[in-house]
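Ligand-gated channel protein (Limnohabitans parvus II-B4), 669 aa
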Amino acid sequence: MTHSFQLSALACACLATLSFSNAWAQNAAPSALPEIVITGNPLGRDSTTVPVSSLGRADLLERGQSTLGETLNGLPGVSSTYFGPNASRPTIRGLDGDRIRVLNNSASSLDASALSYDHAVPLDVLSTDRVEVLRGPAALLYGGSAVGGVVNVIDNRIPREAVSGVLGKAQLQAGTGNDERSVAGLVEAGNERYALHLDGFDRRTGDVRVPVALECTKPGAPANARRICNSASTARGGAFGASTFWAHGYLGASVNSYQSDYGTVAEDEVAIGMKTTRYALEGQVRQLPGWFESVKARLSHTDYQHTEFEGTQAGTVFANKGQDLRIEARHRPVAGWQGVVGVQTESSRFSAVGSEAFAPFSRTRSHALFVHEELPTAWGQVTAGARWESVRVESLGNPELERFDEGIGAQKFTPFSVAAGAVFKLSPAWSLTGNAALTQRAPKDYELFANGPHLATHAWEIGSAALGLEKSKSLDAGVQWKSGPDSVNVTAFANQFANYIGLMNTQDVEGVLPVQRYQGVKAQFRGLEASGRQRLWQNTSTLDLDWRADTVRATNTSTGEPLPRIAPMRVGATLVYGQGPWSAKMSADWHAAQKRVPEGSVATGAYTWVNASVAYRQKLDTTVLHWFARLDNLTDQLAYSASSILTSTAFGKSPLPGRSVKLGVQATF
């Protein structure tokens, strides 16, 4: 009750501030266009000291997959958890789960995807404008769960700029490898005062083709076929949003729904039915009088639920409901320093009902204060920041399962994180970057209170209420060179954990399942990321060579063993050809063998992935058509993901997809 009152009070304060500023702004002079903000820089500049990758509409159109993890897989430092083709979360620099913060428009995306590898992220690239990936510790802005990095999925469901007239897009695509049939569309309309947004999508796929015959016991499916058993899926969703604008700001709201039904691939007759509904309110005012230049606020409520079906019978039901409120205020320069201060409060209530509930009902509440500051200099830029959090994680037991009775109670944590970074401009072409951070993360509810069978990990998981804060020290250093179309980016990083919370093997057995416990150990992550572009030819056409490479080495330094699910060294290159409206790409990515695995994990072999694509932009009056064709895994290579838990728990059931052709067109008007 107290927390609900606090959240409501903060929301009212936020809206009161916006309303007052709206009234003041109506009498002020016209302002410039709203600034564009990237994830790593809340001040809206086009640069940041930390490594950031961005995928726009054209990139998402040509490389988009059915899951967020597979769409981003292959970016520098980014791999995926790959629990088959329907559930895949991004892994950044070897860190996954709750060390990677998935955001929707810079606000919390509440789901259960970090709880289990077979739980999908309820976001689809068909309804996305841009995805930004921030590598390295971003806890100062987005919380301790961002120690590995941030993935921000950005859409325009709450319009942030005025719309003149009516505009929109429609997209159709089909694929052979999974019999995909997808359709998506959006329409936006408005004037200088109001804007409306409406979008929807529908994606349907069959079982995924692979280069080897696999057994299948699912009723109605072939007993032996070159397809991943139980990998078909459907996903659909839509949203409505509206905004009102005034001279120095906007206020908008949206509601969106996402539904998905998909097979879990680890078990031939188990499927998941997922549904989430999210309500969001967002606003910003600029050119305020006094110490603050602008204030931006976001408030959201999410209702998430999914049911695991065994055949046609409903099994365990997972639900997560929560709110997120975030307020950022940009202050005027003080002694040359420019920055934002902010508050954030989150609350969620989780439940799992059924015989396979491995975590109890729980309630998590957190409050945070953060500051991010930048100092432009003659030689570059300095950044600094800090974040303080108060986190309360409470086990509520489970009325149907007595095994959770002992853990009922609450744990409180006060994580504190600081960071600093700098950019040194050696010349117009060369620059150096460096970042250092001390970060802390509060344990999650399942890390503290789990006690049950988790079939995704094929283990009986047990939490520890005695766990303390996860603490780490991070360093990265990079060099960048850019001259015209040519560029080189190289970053080295090291992350030292004094208390890394991991699921560790034990000698115990519960029934037929091995027992694994959440424990704090010392750990070390070290790695290198490199990418670049070289212009090979330029005349009436252009030919570029894009190249990339990354590697990470992760060790449990308490035992000397490697940490599990770490992607191997990867090296790749892409030839990019462009002439007028035509473009074409041919890429090859070599993945080394991953033999450095802990006891109980399965080593994976090396493989080379070859892809090709061609695209054509056609202009018809006020409509632009973007046609594309993509060929994935051209050589039909049989391969297994080293960063997927399926490689160890269900080896052979879910290799990476085989050869596939995808055709599509997007119309923009």
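The longest helix spans residues 2-26. Confidence is low (pLDDT under 50) at residues 1-37. ok done for today
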